[in-house]
Amino acid sequence: MTSATTAHSVVEPSTTTRRFAGTLVVLYAIITMIPLVWIMLTAFKSPDDAISYPPKVMFKPSLEGFCNLFTTRSRQTPEFIRSLGPPQGLCDDIARSRNMVVAGPSNYVPRFVNSLIIAFGSTVLAVALGTLSAYGFSRFRVPLKDDLLFFILSTRMMPPIAVAIPIYLMYRTIGLSDTRLGMILLYTSVNVSLAVWLLKGFIDEIPREYEEAAMIDGYTRFQAFVKVVLPQATTGIAATAIFCLIFAWNEYAFAVLLTSGNAQTAPPFIPIIIGEGGQDWPAVAAGTTLFLVPIVVFTVLLRKHLLRGITFGAVRK
Amino acid sequence: MAQIRVEALDKSFGTFHAVKSASFTVEDGQFLCLLGPSGCGKTTTLRMIAGLELPTAGTIRLDGEDVTMNRASARDIAFVFQLFALYPHMNVRRNIGFPLKCEGIGAGERDRRVVEAARILRISHLLDRSVSGLAGGDRQRVALGRAIVRKPKCFLMDEPLGALDTEMRDAMIHELRALHDRLGATTVYVTHDQLEAMAMADRIAVMNNGVVEQVASPRDIYDRPASLFVADFIGSPPMNFLPFRGGLRTGAEAIRLGERDVAIPAAREATAESELVLGVRPEHVRFTDRGMVRGEVYGTEYLGTTQIVTVTTHYGALKARSPSSRSFRTGETVGLDFRPDTLSIFDKASGRAIRTALHEGGAHG
Q: Sign of the C-alpha dihedral, residues B302, B307, B312, B315?
């Protein structure tokens, strides 16, 4: 093909179109990124810089937000503070400059660990159950298959909060209230419908000849599923896992209602930082920033699957 | 290698009766084609032999042993799929070696047999390639490699050439048949392409609507079709049908077609007065001015050495095969005559062929 024909190609976008599209994408990316960047900047501001007007873009970075996030502090008289020995580390130093002393660690770390356990636990469960049922729905003649699939999907047709009260009462009765297991089961049940539907689409795309060939070659159906179907469904499983994890990680309403002292996750914990000793925006921002890290790491690790996963099956090969 | 016996096999999917009491035997070392239009139940039958579907009723015997309800992996058969079903996450060597790995055969022995299979199929140079980069024909050879590497009791193939282009297909037809002869394998081969079936099979089982209409050698299927469906499905163009009303006595050597008597192979059974159909292959139609049937030339299709002449007659459009050297004008009036010893008579209601002397000419069983 000559350059003259490519210049007028019908299917290839022209240079102008490309530039225009590129500009749009960059603009959209900037708009999406600004709040995130602002939160990260705020995390490193001092409380005064955080609420100054006009807002400061250039400022002297401070770790006060992170210190306040990880510690609880008590206010003391300057005399009492002077009577203490030298400050115990950086955070103590910052606290003393504000007439406070570090009283102990905050609950952020245990809440964060709860979030990790509950979100990853429910994701693993939802994806595992989802893969198995999706395989069943895809490959076997399940009686009332369409009705069952619709029923599974219908669990997502109302806002989760609509069932919050019944679930709260049920959980209190059976002792799952404020337990990690209870939250894992709850998020699993919400996510499994999404997982079944997403994964059924992926598994439908895998020709059944693969596992039939494996079964003829000497595998049982379960072996064929593990050794032949799963490796080909990796993309779908990864994409599904990301969606499930994002839901479980960010979930707020159930977490507020069903957890308090023991199994509380990070989302309901972060806002209550505000209450402790004034509007401590840097501490909230620091909590949010750290809260973003696991999901970013997970998504970056699986990103090549994610892109393929979302467009999977869009074009028949 | 083994004999396969299929006895009164039935399969229903809900309300759909896919296979109706199918019975046939594939002798040890035989190449049987299951031939029929799509949806006729041929693939379902093959999948039941393989153990990928369980029959609703009936038995399947491999070398006399009842395997009807056995797991696919317990039947010692190999299956070649239309879409090859090569595992995309493995290279050629691991694909071919996969069945051996499933059986737990050691790496050394496995590699020796993979190399041997690759040599037979002439794909030794591809062993370490990824399967995704292979051309259609090579992919099919790899799929065959995976089938032959285990030395199974029989090969089951589901339209293995369906995904190949015509040129590749013709080459593979000969390769497959040569492979079959070389291995002395029992093969059941599903296809909807009569040319493939004719070219490869020792015997053909023609299926329609879940029913096995006829099991016979390609020659018998073509020359002595057992039913209207077989006569219509086999041959290109298919057999001409001339409906008429009449009865046959045993030994009758002619039928009354319109005003004229038409000589037929001597009847071996009697039929009451009923609607019958006279079947005649296009190549058995001769042009003669004193012909029994007269008509007008409607058009011709040039096929190289021969041509197909369509003639509109009182009995509908008849197709005749004639040497290309002869020229026809559209609209020209011609007389047609049929070669008596090749004619088939069918009962219109049941579609069954009436037994005549035709069926005695060196019956192949």
A: negative
Cβ neighbours of A216 in B, within 8 Å? 50-52, 72-73, 75, 77-79, 99
From the list B52, B88, B102, the residue facing A217 with the nearest CB is B102
Task: Judge: B72–A228 Cβ closer than 8 Å, yes or no.
Answer: no
Q: Which residues of B touch A (CB under 8 A)?
A: 13-14, 50-52, 71-73, 75, 77-79, 81-85, 87-89, 98-99, 102-103, 146, 150
**DSSP letters along A107-168, please?**
SHHHHHHHHHHHHHHHHHHHHHHHHHHHHHHHHS--TTHHHHHHHHHHTTSS-GGGGHHHHH
Q: Say how far apart CA B49 and CA B70 lie, in whole Å.
A: 10
Q: Contact A212/B79, CB-based, under 8 Å?
A: yes
Nearest by CB to residue B77, choosing from A141, A210, A216, is: A216
Q: How far apart are CA A243 and CA A202, in angstroms?
A: 15
* pTM for this prediction: 0.77
* Tokens found for residue B188: 């059941």
For residues B278 and B262, is the Cβ–Cβ distance under 8 A? yes
Q: Residue B241: what are its φ and ψ, rounded to 5°?
A: -120, 130
Q: Measured in Å, how far apart are chain A's first and last C-alpha atoms?
A: 25
Residue of B nearest to A232 (CA): B89
For each successive 10 residues of chain B (365 residues), what is the average pLDDT? 89 91 93 93 94 92 91 88 83 90 88 90 89 84 89 90 84 88 91 92 95 94 94 92 90 85 89 92 90 89 93 92 91 91 92 89 46
Contact B98 A141 (CB under 8 A): no
Cβ atoms of B5 and B25 closer than 8 Å: yes
Taking the C-alpha atoms of residue A126 and residue B70, their distance in angstroms, rounded to an integer, is: 34
What is the C-alpha to C-alpha distance for residues A131 and A122, in angstroms, rounded to an integer?
A: 14
ipTM over 0.85: no
Range B326-361 burial, b when 16+ CB lie within 10 A, else e: eebeeeeebebbbeeebbbbbbeeebebbbbebbee
Whole-number Å distance between alpha carbons of B247 and B269:
11
Strands B57-62 and B260-263, bridge-based pairing: unpaired
Region of B287 (left: φ > 0; alpha: ψ -120 to 50; beta: rest) is beta
Kindly give, in sequence order, each residue whose CB lies less than 8 Å from that of residue A300, ignoring residues fewer than 6 positions away: none
Residue of B79, B89, B102 lying closest to A231 (CB–CB): B89
| Of the partner residues B71, B85, B89, the one whose CB lies closest to the CB of residue A209 | B85
CATH of A109-310, one of 3.40.50.11220, 1.10.3720.10, 3.20.20.105, 3.40.50.970: 1.10.3720.10
Q: Which member of B73, B81, B89 has the closest CB to residue A218?
A: B73
Q: Is residue A184 classed as helix, strand or coil in its secondary structure?
A: helix
- Closest by CA to B135, choosing from B173, B159, B143, is B143
pLDDT tens digits for A149-187? 999 888 888 887 788 889 999 999 999 999 999 999 999
User: Do the Cβ atoms of B212 and B58 come closer than 8 Å?
Assistant: no
Cβ neighbours of B75 in A, within 8 Å: 216
Contact, A70 vs A108, CB < 8 A? yes
How distant, in Å, are the alpha carbons of A14, B1, B133 from that of B51? 55, 18, 31
Determine the number of helices (DSSP H) and then strands (DSSP E) in chain B: 8, 20
The whole-angstrom distance between residue B222's C-alpha and the CA centroid of its chain comes to 10
Distance from CA of A130 to the nearest CA of B (A): 23
- Spell out the residues 6+ positions from residue B51 whose beta carbon is closer than 8 angstroms to its own: A215, A216, B67, B70, B71, B72, B73, B74, B75, B77
